[in-house]
Write a structure and sequence with these properties.
- By secondary structure, the chain is an alpha/beta fold.
- It has 13 helices and 11 strands.
- A 7-stranded parallel beta sheet has the order 3-2-1-4-5-6-10, with helices on both faces. Strands 7-9 form a two-stranded parallel ribbon. Strands 8-11 form a two-stranded parallel sheet.
- Helix 1 links the parallel strand 1 and strand 2.
Length: 344
């Protein structure tokens, strides 16, 4: 099988490429060759095509020479890019797969306060209601040229799944953690700094979020690439259960050998630097049973091992910049003391 991966040089993508190579797949990667990318991460057997995603269609003749059976797009962020993707590969490829996100669900729009509706039954499945609001990150964009301005995976999915002449597959990813991502950093740093207590707002502490270790998520994507039964299907990818936020912190703590505790405080008692302004009545717990039943997917790295690898990487690869205001331990101690006084 010949596979063309668009944007497979970072975090999840490079692991997908390695997985496909291990399975004997003939892989080519289209990427922009950014100076910050570590080219040593890309296996030497991979054909690399350097180019800008915005000029994707201009590489059609080169893509035709590769003649991919399957195209995997890791970085399709908006409707325009999806339309270009379909136009470029219709007649060239047999199948097309795009990576999406669980932020397409209505629960996510409600979590952000972009819309209002009763909470949907959990766990969310691939047929659960989608957001009615669009462009969920536009309010954070610096301008129309910012990727966040017109980012929205819902129209991407609609375009990719809308043409039977080029069957599409959509993989909705959870929160992906592991080496290469600093999702666990703030907790690891507090533990390393000797904090005996980590504070969470009480509703946040109970909130469930689907997560997936990066190598396991990459394996789920590779399964969909390799199996023609994935054509025309949408899959959630993630761990079979969704930890609450307090369970997530404790799992980090076990991996780090931390002997402290997680304390949930009322919203009004949380220090301002730890305030999270979301509606935590809306969980992002997405069921991944479909990809397991239809394609036989299963994690190959257990959560305990995944957390140990994540913590070790965080310890040895701290972020280039750390915001000290996120670690106002005096304010955290004062919040704890105030609660203790009220209980005396």
């Amino acid at each position: 099988m010949k596979v063309l991966v668009i944007g497979g040089t970072r975090f999840i993508g490079v692991r997908v490429v390695r997985r496909l190579i291990e399975e004997g797949t003939d892989v080519a990667v289209f990427h922009r060759g950014h100076p910050s990318q570590d080219k040593s991460e890309i296996p030497v057997s991979v054909k690399q095509i350097l180019g800008d995603r915005a000029a994707l269609s201009s590489f059609a003749s080169e893509f035709a020479r590769i003649a991919p059976d399957v195209v995997l797009d890791m970085i399709c962020y908006n409707e325009r890019e999806a339309e270009t993707l379909m136009h470029t590969f219709k007649g060239l490829a047999r199948r097309l797969i795009v990576v999406s996100s669980m932020d397409v669900y209505r629960a996510y729009g409600c979590l952000l306060g972009l819309e209002s509706a009763p909470p949907d039954p959990l766990p969310l499945n691939e047929d659960s209601p989608l957001r009615e609001s669009r462009f969920p990150y536009r309010g954070q964009a610096k301008g129309p040229g910012d990727m966040a301005f017109d980012y929205d995976k819902i129209p991407v999915e609609q375009v990719v799944m809308g043409d039977p002449d080029l069957p599409g597959t959509v993989l909705r990813l959870p929160a992906v953690y592991g080496p290469g991502d600093h999702r666990a950093f703030e907790h690891v740093k507090r533990m390393a700094d000797g904090r005996r207590v980590i504070l969470l707002e009480e509703n946040h502490a109970r909130w469930r979020w689907a997560r997936g270790y990066v190598d396991n998520v990459a394996a789920a994507i590779a399964v969909a690439v390799a199996d023609d039964r994935a054509a025309g299907r949408i899959y959630n990818a993630g761990e079979p259960d969704a930890l609450t936020e307090s369970e997530w912190v404790r799992s980090i703590g076990r991996a780090a050998g931390w002997q402290g505790d997680v304390v949930a405080l009322p919203k009004a008692s949380m220090p301002e630097h730890l305030a999270v302004h979301y509606n935590f009545d809306y969980h992002l717990y997405g069921a991944s049973s479909r990809i397991r039943k239809e394609l036989g997917y299963a994690e190959h790295i257990a959560r305990d091992e995944a957390m140990k690898e994540t913590v070790e990487w965080e310890r040895t690869h701290p972020p280039d910049q750390v915001d000290p205001s996120r670690f106002d331990y005096a304010a955290e101690d004062a919040a704890l003391e105030k609660i203790a006084e009220a209980r005396r």
